[in-house]
Amino acid sequence: MDSYVLDLAKRRKTTRRFSSRPIDLKQVIAALEAACQAPSGANSQPWRFLIVTDPKVKKRVREACENGEKAFYSKVKGELGKWLLAKGLNWQKPFLEEAPVLVLIFSETKAPYAIQSAWLAIGHILLALEESGLGTMTYTPSITREVTEEIDLPKGFRLEAILPVGISVDEKPKEPKFGLRQVAYLNFWGHRLDATALLSGTVSRQPS
Amino acid sequence: MDSYVLDLAKRRKTTRRFSSRPIDLKQVIAALEAACQAPSGANSQPWRFLIVTDPKVKKRVREACENGEKAFYSKVKGELGKWLLAKGLNWQKPFLEEAPVLVLIFSETKAPYAIQSAWLAIGHILLALEESGLGTMTYTPSITREVTEEIDLPKGFRLEAILPVGISVDEKPKEPKFGLRQVAYLNFWGHRLDATALLSGTVSRQPS
User: Looking at residue B200, what is its pLDDT?
Assistant: First the structure.
């Protein structure tokens, strides 16, 4: 049997379309409390959260993000440009208004490992929201300046991501994922995990 | 009642001292499978994992890390230096040999949001290991060059963290953490979550 965490991780998928049904803010708060328990560089806890439920604020955040996306999409090319086109993504971000709640996540720029710590904490949030049956995604605005001005973000903080949160009505399947065999090695780089390793019993701490 | 994920997040603490008892590699593999299910920039899945069980490799990794730490600790100062001193931390990293398993985590440097994606995945790993009753920590070598040379890391990958994994015999309590009230705002930066917000019922998607 899978572990519960693995089961949540497998179920979770990116949600870009949300129902207008209201959600229980307590579930969002529980997910952020899980984030607050994460480790961080020198325990600096360099995360800050702005929970947005006010439709006027959501609208302003959406507009600021979309202005940045228009500038970004007018220039994007290469592999990323191809991927975005193939996925049907463009500058429009209606989920920023459609989701009943937005969670903006910031890092304190001078803290050690600030970005790493904030994103590790986001890893906790996603699983906690999945457990609550709520959909979300980690939206990273391509250009953040206008957003941070709109919300009067003080100096010393960086916008890492915006998580729209709500009941999913997104019917797109989960993106396919590499198996561990494709991304994990055993003891030496390039030495792939094989069935023996996957099924083997225990490994002990042996004197070398 | 807390959610299960929140409960795991609360229980989890940094483990620096490990029992020599063997562990079931399948639990480590399940935790990495949870990581593989995480979202990533343009679904690039820019994470790679090197599971180390061979004592000779662990010893070489430890030595390479400690050489870097000696250089780092000879120069560190400021707030971080004070914090390290107060916590009794120094260049010695015995857990890199004492833990029965090490998991080295890498990001693919050219992938979009590579660091962010790898650390979000680490957030999944920590909760999955906690569920299995295994201790770990996110050790970030201060200087990675000698480590990456030792393991013949190809160009294009960056060492993000080393997770020693095993049965905890670390009796230090969990570091104190900020409550959500200290790090979360509602609708406007600086507008702290109050008891009303924490206990309030639902928020709906209203037309603005």
Answer: 54
For the question of an ipTM over 0.85, the answer is yes
The proportion of chain A whose per-residue pLDDT surpasses 90, expressed as a percent, equals 88
Q: Residue A4: which of B131, B189, B207 has the nearest Cβ? A: B131
Does the pLDDT at position B184 exceed 50? yes
B208 three-class SS: coil
Q: Beta B23-24 vs A202-203: how paired, if at all?
A: antiparallel
CATH top class, domain B4-174:
alpha beta
Q: How far apart are CA B65 and CA B148, in angstroms?
A: 10
Q: Which residues pair with A164 in a beta bridge?
A: A102
Rounded to whole angstroms, the Cα distance separating A17 from A70 reads 20
Collapse the DSSP code of B181 into the 3-class scheme (helix H, G, I; strand E, B; otherwise coil) and give the result: helix
Give, in order, the Cα–Cα distances in Å from A123 to each of A34, A38, A130, B73: 10, 9, 11, 30
Nearest-neighbour CA in chain A from B47: distance (Å) = 7
Q: Answer whether B9 sits within 8 Å of A132, measured CB to CB.
A: no
Domain boundaries, chain A: 4-174, 178-208
pLDDT of B118: 98
Query: How buried is B38 (Cβ within 10 angstroms: 0-12 exposed, 13-18 middle, 19+ buried)?
Result: buried
User: Which residues of chain B have a CB within 8 Å of the CB of A18?
Assistant: 205
| Spatial distance between the Cα atoms of B171 and B17, rounded to a whole number of angstroms | 8
Token couple for B71? 């250089």
Token code pair at residue A139: 């939206």
How many Å apart are CA A37 and CA B39, to the nearest integer?
21
What is d(CA A102, CA A51) in angstroms, rounded to the nearest whole number? 6
Beta strands in B85-205 (DSSP E): 101-108, 157-165, 184-186, 202-203
Structure tokens at B170: 């670390």
Side chain identity at residue A11, one-letter code: R
- For chain A, helix (H) and strand (E) counts, in that order, are 9, 6
pTM above 0.90, yes or no: yes
The answer to whether residue B153 neighbours chain A at the CB level (below 8 Å) is yes
